[in-house]
Amino acid sequence: MASSKMISRKMIKLLSPTPPSLRCHKLSFMDHINLPLHSPCAFFYPKIPQNYSNKISQILENSLSKILSFYYPLAGKINNNYTYVDCNDTGAEYLNVGINCPMSQIINNPYNDAVGVVFPQDLPWSSSLNRSPLVVQLSHFDCGGIAVSACTSHTIFDGYCVSKFINDWASTARNMDFKPSPQFSASTFFPLPSETNLSSTLPPTQPSKRHVSRMYNFSSSNLTRLKDMVTKESHVKNPTRIEVASAHVHKCGVAMSMEKSGIFKPTLMSHAMNLRPPIPLNTMGNATCIILTTTMTEDEVKLPNFVAKLQKDKQQLRDKLKDMKKDMMPLYTLELAKNAMNIIEKDTHDVYLCSGMTNTGLHKIDFGWGEPVRVTLATHPNKNNFIFMDEQSGDGLNVLITLTKDDMLKFQSNKELLEFASPVVESTK
């Protein structure tokens, strides 16, 4: 098993100090009720051009220092009540680590869990209260390849913001004159009530050693096949990549559950939906709502039927939000989350959690030495979790699937799954 050795650890300070007027960054209602975890993302680069090999760390450090001047809350400290960030310019943690194996041993491992070595130990999905809101690790493999990972506080950022920040960081690394334009104004759209104590509204999530993750790829051609199946057998029009792919893995999850128990159990699938728009695209913070889709019969699980239900649920949510005052959106989102938690606690449904970091450019993150061969996250603490990302070509989809160990053994042998999705392994030769 690969192990890591710390080479250096430092705090990256802001190139330009945060103005006193911005010292207190008010968190929004949605920030406040979010789980205070570090969300992990990693980028693998197997072949580094000779002219970059000796200055990679300096490029990352210099560009990070500059970008933090624009993303200043990431260099501050979250207060104990999750109501504001003290933007005190403490800086972001930056680790230089050596990995005693070739990169191929990590990214060709059948289970994604092996990538944990490129993240700061015990940090992914752990509390961000007493650590820097941003922790970066540069990992050097024996083969000469590198991985760049970032763990960002979910209290400050949702997935959209993580993508925006890393894209802007990479742009700065390539051109130090680049100037991003993030706006830390989410609290003006979703203000925090004057009297609130909702930090524990949602139960804390703890990583489980019983969970494992694998990444599967839906090629562009297989996504087209799935879309054709849906449109030919239903009145659904223009299904999206995420709709057909999530419906397919949901169906395979149901098959796995029925193989275990011998009976059909109702299901609940949650999809995260970005609220930009209606709020501006450069708004930093948490701005998502969840779409809840249930099935009560095996017939509803069939691909055309499930996609039709999912589209209907999405449209109903859009219609609901369209006429809703923005300051009511967080309360409505919280209500949806509570409804989902009630179902989870009653154990009447198999629950699947679906989110995506697609159409964000993460698959092409270039700090100056080329695009990554793999973009991934650490194993999620929740079982039955599906996270969709763009494949390296940009046309297909990769999905990181987290299940219990026993469920994964059944899931990965599902013939219908493998007809449309392939396990991802990457040759670095």
From TrEMBL:
* Annotated Gene3D superfamilies: Chloramphenicol acetyltransferase-like domain
Q: Which GO MF terms are attached to this record?
A: acyltransferase activity
Q: Report the domain of life of the source organism.
A: Eukaryota
Question: Can the keyword Repressor be found in this entry's annotation?
Answer: no
Taken from the record, one Pfam family name reads Transferase
State the UniProt keywords alphabetically: Acyltransferase, Transferase
Q: Give the family this protein belongs to, as stated in its UniProt record.
A: Belongs to the plant acyltransferase family.
Please identify the protein, giving its name as recorded.
Acylsugar acyltransferase 3
Source organism per entry reads: Solanum habrochaites (Wild tomato)
